[in-house]
Amino acid sequence: MTRTVARIGLLVTFVVGLAGPAGAVAPAPAASDDTIAVLRHQLEAVQAQLRELAQQNKELVSRQAALEQELRQQREPASPAAPALAAAPNASIPVPSAATTAPTPSASDKVRMWGYGEAYYANPTSDHTKAQADLARAVFGIGYLFDERTEFNSEFEVEHAVASASDVGEFEVEQFYVDHQVSDRVGVRAGLFLMPFGMLNEHHEPTNYYGVQRNFVETLIIPSTWREGGVGVHGNTESGIDWNFGVTTGFDLSKWNFTPEFPLYTTALDLENSDSAPLQASHQELALANAHDLSQYLSIRYSGIPGLSLGAAISTGKAVPVPAPPNAPLPDNQRVTLWEGHARWTPGGFDLSALYARGTISNLAAVNAAVPGSPNPIPSSFYGYFVQGAYNLWERNEYRLAPFVRYERYDLGASYEGTPGPAIPSGLVPLSAAPGQYGYWPRNQDRVWTAGTNFYVTPHVVLKADYQWFQVNTDFNRIDLGLGLSF
Amino acid sequence: MSRTDRRVAPFPAVRETPLGFLTGAALLISILTLAACGGASRNAPIPAANGLSSAAKVGQALFFDKSLSASGQQSCGTCHVPAFAFAGDPAVDHGLPIPLGGPHMDLTGFRNSPSLTYASFTPPFSIGAGGKVTGGFFRDGRSSSLAAQAMDPFVTPFEMANQNAAEVVERLRNSAATLALFSAAYGSAVLDNPDLALQDIGLAIAAFETEDPSFHLFTSKYDAWLAGKTQLTVQEQHGLALFNNPAKGNCTACHPSQPQGYSEHALFTDFTYDNVGIPRNWAIPANHANPVSPVSGVPLNYVPISPNITADAEYGYYDLGICGPFQPTASDVHARPDLTASPSLCGRFKVPTLRNIAITAPYFHNGAFVTLREVIEWYVTRDINNNVGNNPTPVAAGPSGNPYASGGTFYVAADGTPDLNQYNDLPVAFDANVNIGEVPYTPPRLAGGQAPTLTSAEIDAVVTFLCTLTDGYDPTNPAAYNVPAQCTAVASSQGSSP
User: Do the chains contact at B1 and A255, CB–CB below 8 Å?
Assistant: First the structure.
């Protein structure tokens, strides 16, 4: 309907435009009366057409208003017996006020959709039989602008292609929040949202990072994609400081697996996907999350100098404790704290970045001491860092080639209380209950070199390739190929 | 991991078991019935404010009433003795690993009496994703509930040996004290319907096993240690670490030392089923051809025909656990299905709790081992010196009679010579069902290793830890703790408390 009105408007403009010059170029002094009469006649005809079009336009506007009214009536609850419902603001579809009769932007103008995803191939060089290809993520986002100050954003993700009771995949809600701008510089966000930690967590689309896989530090220490349910306040200053603080759900230690029979992961890909890192194993993702104790977070970022961005964040809160029998209660005051600092500098064609993240969990002595011999006690501290350099080597049209190198260190068990550390078996151990599969129990810390390149077909489509060297778990060395996109 | 955290209900009769739920539901129904009718003959008992409900009190009387058996000498408590954590007293029954019963107390059973402690936490039988089998009652899960299980021995020919429910009821009518309790709780009218009365008997015994704290004390030395009320010795603590270590004992894989959702406590069983290839026990008469009673010499003509036995099988009778030969009773409508047609499950038995394990010898469903040390010796060498693929000419146990010490095999034929069919309590066709993938079955053998996963000293340490799982530890009087000889035998001089 809007398009029809617009087309008529264009036609009117065109016709008037034609009529204008036609009158202007008329040779008035030399023209005969006949000619003038013909021109007058033509002008009258054009004026009649214009009147006719104007009338049509008026009718169309009227019909559009009537249709909108009809649509509004259909959308509003039909039954007068449900006043509460009728009075409640409709969260998904805006309803123009009853007084509105003029054409308004339609709902579709306010809906935003986007998506991203990545598929990759990982081939451990020590054991090619463990090569895997995976549609790791297919994510679709839906946003909605309620008004210029209030928006809704959501992302729905399918991990590993097929999500069912008998498949490895998952279907999950990654974000689901409302953000309201209370002033030009301050906003409030509530719902399930991504935590403002590190460089990757909030901007985890594959076009935003180097390497086929996300870096280990922002996977294992910062449990990207890390989201919590809660309320946050955010804002910025003229000097380039972004700040963000809030209250969210926290971590849950009650499901910790102290006595895994088999290694929790046997390849680097496994490590990333196994949810075995401390905060991966304990984040709640707002799935019937225990909310007895809430966590607090604060994030500060600075981008006042072009090409440089700095950031730091901290989150702390009491965790859901490890369950204990009533006749032998354990201390239940474990506090999980995670902090990070990062910097990114992009001088010329370079893209240089570094990040450090560290987590701690307190009061674990009695908890771990109750399970001597555990290959997987809860660590008191864990950390990781990386430094990364990339360079825009070649660019033509939208093609861009950006090789990079990254060194990272992660330690998922930097210190322990109540135990000397994980009782990691030496020698070959069974990798599953199926006979015949043996391997080494991996160490929970490593130093990893990654070298590779991103090749952007467009800024939204990237092909990636890299090689990773693991200094400790050398079995994890691998070749990765990937395809990523975002729109 | 998705676990159901079942909290203990404040209502004493409704504990965290399916049976508790049934009892609770029965109570609710009965209360409603009472309200409607002003008292009905089949009213289920109302729990007492303190202690046992009236149902549990009936169950207690039934549990120990020998007059309800054909022989007049056997009750539930005969084979499930309180002093032995409700398992069998190894000193009775002529030292057999299985109980004697029948009208003349001369008929042998087939399986070692399991401990009833912690049985009330058993979940219903289920076959889950990937074929994982869990729960159910009896060692083969053939009964759907503790109550259904408790009914069976009354009418089993080689146990309490009543012909049918009517005979049980007749004996109950003649047992004045038990009858009085029963009638007070369930009314007298139900006795005219023996099948229903036997169901009430089952429910009452189950209520006793569920409510009476002595069935689930959680008062072991291990529990006291968890509570910080005592210390484990260095050796005991080392034993626990080996128990948990996936490359050493790996015991926790099936006997979890962590709560699994069935209770807030660790139960040291995950209630799953496994086939561990236990040696045939020749002390069980049924394991011989043409078996006779070792007491009276009468033929044991009730020995069943095992399912899926091929003509070339070594022996005629095998106890194959979950696939037979013992099947659910027809009246137990919620019982597990007949799994005869699932030969891949043959040989699996339910994982028992290890709580009170030190006082519940002998071990395994067939009582093949007398001590815990022997059990672990067998576990860690099963696929080394016993394995004919690994050791083509296994030798018999040496003069000491200890296959572990002498490098001999635990698998012997009836005449004591090494049995070249290693898993000799299974037909060869089912050897592939035996769990060989997990520690401590010395799987690294397949990867080139030959050493048992536990050394002799480590075996001792694990045994000393298992000895801390016996209920009844008083931190204020540790000397009174029940420490059987097999525990003191392995405790080392390093074992003093730190």
Answer: yes
